[in-house]
Amino acid sequence: MSGKPRLTYCNGRGRMEPVRWLLAAAGVEFEEIFLETRQQYEKLIKDGVLMFQQVPLVEIDGMKMVQTRAILSYIAGKYNLYGKDLKERAMIDMYVEGITDLMQMILMFPFSPPEAKEKNLDSVKERATNRYFPVFEKVLKQHGQDFLVGNKFSWADVQLIEAILAVEEKIPAVLSGFPQLQAFKIRMSNMPTIKKFLQPGSPRKPPPDERYVETVLKIFKK
Amino acid sequence: MSGKPKLHYFNGRGRMESIRWLLAAAGVEFEECFLETKDDLTKLQKDGSLLFQQVPMVEIDGMKMVQTRAILSYIAAKYNLYGKDLKDRALIDMYVEAVIDLNELLMTHTFQPADKKQQHFATIVDKATNRYFPVYEKVLKDHGQDFLVGNQFSRADVQLLETLLMAEECKPDILAKFPLLQSFKARISNIPTIKKFLQPGSQRKPPLQEKDVPKLMKIFH
């Protein structure tokens, strides 16, 4: 037993990717177990390891944590990425929840039928450029600081850089109207722990492809 | 300006109900501003009150908070309903997130098209009785305490009670196989602040009726 957090999920981004990002940003090494077959998943359920029969699962500090937000909140709290007081927490939570709504659209995208894909991509572009990115552009412009909340690196910054890169993969010019976000992206990408995570060979997972979608459907579809 | 939190939403449960429950459980009085028309929503969006152009929005402690989970977390922490340390919090968060998942299923039932309703109902009952309720029944059985986490009243107890009652509205005997959840329900319902919230005339909202759906759609779509 190494004492490192241990992540159980499919070998792809999905709902675990924000957890990988946050641990990496905090400089925390972790191990991963990849689900490849339905039998593996059923065994986990039979062993009583998944509280609500779902993954992500993160074994950390003697707990078998499930529910992505619970896991992320715990990591943020533990590694001082959650602001200095209740009000900063509130700001971080609001920003993270908004970004999570945007990421949800990207999460579901590979699973949408081919005829819906173009429309869904348009929705992602619309929401990113009209609802979410303008908010963070304005936040950064107004306080002129490097980080979103309290002049200090937090979970909100990690979530935002993850989202920016994920949207850019689908819509390369998406940041063209957002100079503050462009600078933010460069700044975050250069932070040592994040820079390391962005290099080849890190635990960061590639964008979902057809093989990933097949694996997920095979393991989880009822 | 009264200093009381002010809730902006339509006059119904939706995503604001959990917030009403938690404030009430904490003994905090609050005011409500109801959206009746699309113009009401547009006005809030135009004057920059809604960070992501969405409700729920709660004015509290000088902030215009949005995002249900952010609001609930703030209220829970402020009024000491979030456990005593990081590990209590972690447990509360896990329990609460699952309750929210079940809530989501219950909430969306009224919006299901007629041909999907029966299947959706079956899904609700299956998930409630096979995935979620057994977990909380076992938690209560294993520690034998009155509250879910840390032998202390928390948001997990409030949110679970809310969901148990909604599930019963859906299927009255849904707790038949869960004796500890039944006694949990009775016990938590008797906490003075919650008892008050469960009485007629409180700010608790009734279930959404099908006839109210068109009005809702007009505001939000």
From TrEMBL, chain A:
**Family matches, as SUPFAM superfamilies:** GST C-terminal domain-like (SSF47616), Thioredoxin-like (SSF52833)
Pfam families, alphabetized: GST_C_3, GST_N
An annotated Gene Ontology molecular function: glutathione transferase activity
* Broad EC category: transferase
PROSITE patterns for this protein: GST_CTER, GST_NTER
Name the Enzyme Commission number(s) assigned to this protein: 2.5.1.18
In this chain the GST C-terminal domain maps to: 85-209
Which keywords does this Swiss-Prot/TrEMBL entry list?
Answer: Transferase
Domain GST N-terminal, first and last residues per copy: 3-83
Q: Give GO terms for biological process.
A: glutathione metabolic process
Family recorded in the similarity comment: Belongs to the GST superfamily. Alpha family.
Protein's recorded name: glutathione transferase
Q: Which gene encodes it?
A: Gsta3_1
TrEMBL record, chain B:
- GST C-terminal domain residues are 85-208
State one molecular function term (GO). glutathione transferase activity
Which Pfam families did the record assign?
GST_C_3, GST_N
**PROSITE patterns associated with the record:** GST_CTER (PS50405), GST_NTER (PS50404)
Q: Does the keyword Transferase apply?
A: yes
For the GST N-terminal domain, which residue ranges apply? 3-83
InterPro entries registered for this protein in UniProt = Glutathione-S-Trfase_C-like, Glutathione-S-Trfase_C_sf, Glutathione_S-Trfase, Glutathione_S-Trfase_N, GST_alpha, GST_C, GST_superfamily, Thioredoxin-like_sf
Enzyme Commission code(s) on record: 2.5.1.18
Q: Known SUPFAM superfamilies for this protein?
A: GST C-terminal domain-like (SSF47616), Thioredoxin-like (SSF52833)
Q: Does the keyword Transferase apply?
A: yes
Q: Which Gene3D superfamilies match?
A: 1.20.1050.10, Glutaredoxin
Family recorded in the similarity comment: Belongs to the GST superfamily. Alpha family.
This protein is called glutathione transferase
Organism in which the protein naturally occurs: Fregata magnificens (Magnificent frigatebird)
